[in-house]
Amino acid sequence: MRRPAPSTVRWLILAALLVFWELMPRTGIIPELFLPTLSKTLAALVKDWREYASELSVTLYEVAIAMLIACGGGILCGALVGGVTLLRNLLLPIFSSMYAIPIVILYPIFTAWFGIGSESKIIFAGVYGFFPVMLSTAAGIRTIDEQLLLAARTMGATVPQQITRVIIPASIPTVLTGLRLGGALTIVGVVVSEMLTSAAGIGYLVTRYRTILDSPHVFGAIIMILLLSIAFDAFARAIERRTKVWQVAGRRQKDGDPADVIARPVQAAV
Amino acid sequence: MQHLANVTPLRPELAKPAIEIAALNHIYDGRDGQVPALEDISLTVGAGKFTVIVGPSGCGKTSLLMMMAGLRHQTNGTINIQGRPIDKPDPDRVGVVFQEASLFPWLSALDNIEFPMALRNAPREERRKRATDMLNLVGLQGFGARYPHELSGGMKQRVSIARGLVQDPPVLLMDEPFAALDEQTRMTMGHELLRIWSQTAKTVVFVTHSLTEAVYLADEVIVMSARPGRIIDRIAINLPRPRTYEMMATDVFGRLRERIWQQIRKEG
Does B119 share its domain with B243? Predict the structure, then answer.
């Protein structure tokens, strides 16, 4: 018998999970308060889709602005810290150790400063996503193969040309890895802050329905968040794949894959 | 082009020097204070000549080459290329080929060769045409669309040579270009380089660790001492051209190689 393709198996596992989700509460093995059936969850989603859509739009808006802050600020600071030796020596150790701080402890302060509206979520999530973007950009620039810059200089490349034609294309793969991690953390940041203190957003729905013990609606909101994260990840991976050509080469091997350097602390933090 | 292959590079009109190095010294700041790296280097290389520099590891031969490329500055002394001092990289006078092919991994072979022309905003058609000519010259017809990771080590170095030649500089500097290749590829590439050289009439300065490669390629071999690097011998290689693999088995070849080896061995 031929072995089925891994993607087929993955879809089967997913289908099996969904079937279990429906059956476990239905047979009473798990109380419905803890896990409502899939059909009831979907029914709740369909019945109140207007509410979910409007709260999701709030979350999407906050995520979009926070990603702009995280990515824009992260790339800019990362380029400076990675490219300028003085800044690197002064700031990189500080940024790296700040990365280990659970930034969520700062959220109460942010609400005091910026209120409980969208601003505090945007700023909190922006800061949360900023670090991986900044650190991977710095790593991307630091680990560029010096030989490429030397070669470009022998061909008469000016400093601006070295930046636009060598440094930027050579750092794109690492920066994209940082954007994927930073973007994912931004979504986490927005949802968590909405759950903590808020009057709007999909995270707020989770908290509100939980306090009134409405499990189907809680799980409905969870499904929305899952879909949001999966959609973002698929989008980011698609962009990364397009740059696969030069992902394999162009940097010093001895430093290891810079993506690993970044991924490790992120996994530790999450 | 083929007619050039049989012309000896000692033609009188090519005899005026392409490279003149006078009283060059170089001292760098090491961990334990100042370290003399190069000492009293004077060297004249005639136009169209193939010169090979050999010497023990760390003798400063790569440093010397980088100074000729305008990438590094000597402490004192002068380097003239085509009659003018060189203080920064000048692609009109000097092309450089490094040990690692140093190709941009995000560009195809053809785009890599075009890169120096793209830096000067040369018209697209001219770039394409010139780069394609160079690709053909180095024997890579049909590989222009490949990316560096899709090419073998030898092919990458061919692209790198094509890139060094694309702006037609009179001088080509090569820093151990074949050191990372396996022995067979290395021999083939040496032979190919001589073919390309005979078709383009460049002045080549070539740094290597391989004495066989040195004798096989050179009009003249420059032997350098251990640090601080000095020129301890200049050996004219009067083997006929075009060179053939069979020459390596001759007594003359063996004696030349032995003479260089004796010089370097003393420096240990």
Answer: no
pLDDT digits (tens, 9 = 90+) for B152-191: 999 999 999 999 999 899 999 999 999 888 988 999 999 9
Give the model's pLDDT for residue B161.
93
pLDDT at B255: 93
ipTM reported for the complex, 2 dp: 0.85
The contacts of residue A64 (CB under 8 Å, 6+ apart) are none
Q: Are residues B47 and B19 in the same domain?
A: yes
Alpha carbon distance B75, B100 (integer Å):
27
Contact between B71 and A150 using a beta-carbon 8 Å cutoff: yes
Tally of structural domains, chain A: 1
Cα-only R_g, chain B: 18
Q: What is the mean pLDDT of chain B?
A: 88
Q: Residues B142, B74: one domain?
A: no
Are residues B164 and B237 both part of a single domain? no
A132 is written with which tokens?
């991986």
Global pTM exceeds 0.90: no
By DSSP bridging, strand B50-54 and strand B33-46 are unpaired
The answer on B76 and B3 residing in a single domain is yes
Kindly determine whether residue B90 and residue A156, on different chains, have CB atoms separated by under 8 Å. Answer: yes
pLDDT (0 to 100) of residue B56:
87
Range of the domain at A206: 48-269
Largest CA distance in chain A: 75
User: Which residues, in sequence order, are CB contacts of A225 under 8 Å at separation 6+?
Assistant: A187, A191, A202, A203, A206
How does residue A248 score in pLDDT terms, banded at 50, 70 and 90? low
Q: Say whether pLDDT at A247 is over 80.
A: no
User: Does some domain include residue A199?
Assistant: yes
Residue A11 lies in a domain: no
Q: Is the pLDDT of residue A252 over 80?
A: no
A165 touches chain B (CB under 8 A): yes
Per DSSP, the residues of A240-269 read HHHTHHHHSSSB-STT--HHHHHHHHHHHH
Q: Of B30, B69, B219, B94, nearest to A150 (Cα)?
A: B69
Which tokens belong to B230?
């000095």
Tell me, yes or no, if A159 comes closer than 8 A to chain B by beta carbon.
Answer: no
- Tell whether B76 and B115 lie within a shared domain: no
Domain match, B59 and B176 both = yes
B177 touches chain A (CB under 8 A): no
Cβ–Cβ gap A147/B163 under 8 Å: no
Q: Which CATH number characterizes residue B16's domain?
A: 3.40.50.300
Same domain? For B77 and B138 the reply is: no
pLDDT tens-digit readout, A163-212: 999 998 888 888 888 889 999 999 999 999 999 888 889 999 999 999 99
Query: Are B98 and A150 an interchain contact pair (Cβ–Cβ within 8 Å)?
Result: yes
Task: Name the residue range of residue B268's domain.
Answer: 1-82+171-180+199-268
Query: What is the total count of domains within chain B?
Result: 2
Which letter does DSSP use for residue A102 in this model?
-
